[in-house]
Amino acid sequence: MSLSVIQMASQADVQSNLKIARRLLEQAAEQGARLAVLPENFAAMGHADPLALGRAEAQGTGPILPWLGQAARDLGLWIVAGTLPLPPDGDPDAKPRACSLLVDERGQRVARYDKLHLFDADVTDSRGRYRESDHYAPGQRLVVADTPLGRLGMTVCYDLRFAELYLALRAAGAELISVPSAFTLTTGAAHWQSLIRARAIETQCYMLAAAQGGEHPGGRITYGHSSIVDCWGRMLCEQSTGDAVLSASRDVAEQAAIRQRMPVLSHRRFSMPCLDAAVLE
């Protein structure tokens, strides 16, 4: 059984994005994948009204959630649905979260992770200013879930810069970590590979880094370079830009041996309140 990450250059049109994502998921299934990770904003990159989109999905009138369940059932895949705008469960009128869903091969939701760290930053690119908090509210919980390929910790994009989150996921038993992303061209070229390899090395987890890679509405350009990085920090596969499906296998025995030879988790000499008081879904 293998793991797949999917790279896209999503646009604002939801139906077109879903058609492309389905084709790429089919390729992942053909390559033997049991778990596939879609990129951040896979269904609606640059959508004009995330609140309306999220409200429709929460009320059962949107296209994304039914499509997701059908794709998982048809292909026999566990899918990490990158992110989509969704309000909190039970509150459809609230500000949406950048929500990453894990569904199983029956199309049933297994876990929901709402992005904890929102990208409010100034970047030296053509856009210059990013304020994710204008459209989204932050999440509040860590999420680790069991899958057929290992225990999965869930994160999104800007989370990569906060090592304490990844250490908390490892402490909660994570063996794989999903990172659907849409790094800017500028920040990606500077830090993307360094960050995903560092998070893999310090947690001794496989990093499933599914990225947006190309040009999007409003002139935004994302860095791409989707990758699977193993628990020793080795990059097993990578794609610079454009649509792609990347697959690799998890070596369970090697991961266990690495953690035994270098038991970093048990070597911690100090604690951080955010790790020790972490709240899991």
Structure description:
The chain is of the alpha/beta class. Helices cover 28% and strands 23% of the residues. It is built from seven helices and 15 strands. The strands form three sheets. Strands 1, 2, 3, 4, 5, 6 and 15 form a seven-stranded mixed β-sheet that branches. Strand 9 and strand 10 form a beta hairpin. The longest helix has 19 residues, at 185-203. It is globular. The two termini are 27 Å apart.
List the helices and strands and how they pair.
Blueprint lengths: L1 E6 L6 H17 L2 E5 L12 H9 L5 H12 L2 E3 L3 E3 L10 E7 L5 E6 L5 E3 L6 E3 L12 E4 L2 E5 L8 H9 L4 E3 L6 H19 L2 E4 L16 E4 L5 E5 L4 E5 L3 H10 L11 H4 L5
Helix pairs in contact: 1-3
What distinguishing features does this structure have?
15 strands, 281 residues, globular, alpha/beta, Nitrilase/N-carbamoyl-D-aminoacid amidohydrolase, 23% strand, 7-stranded mixed β-sheet, 28% helix, 6-stranded mixed β-sheet
Brief characterization of the structure:
This is Carbon-nitrogen hydrolase family protein. The protein is built from 7 helices and 15 strands. It has 281 residues and is of the alpha/beta class.
Silhouette: globular
Measured as a percent range, the helix fraction is: 25-40%
State the secondary-structure class.
Answer: alpha/beta
One letter per element, helices H and strands E, the order comes to EHEHHEEEEEEEEHEHEEEEHH
Number of domains: 1
Query: Superfamily at the CATH H level?
Result: Carbon-nitrogen hydrolase
End-to-end Cα distance: 27 Å
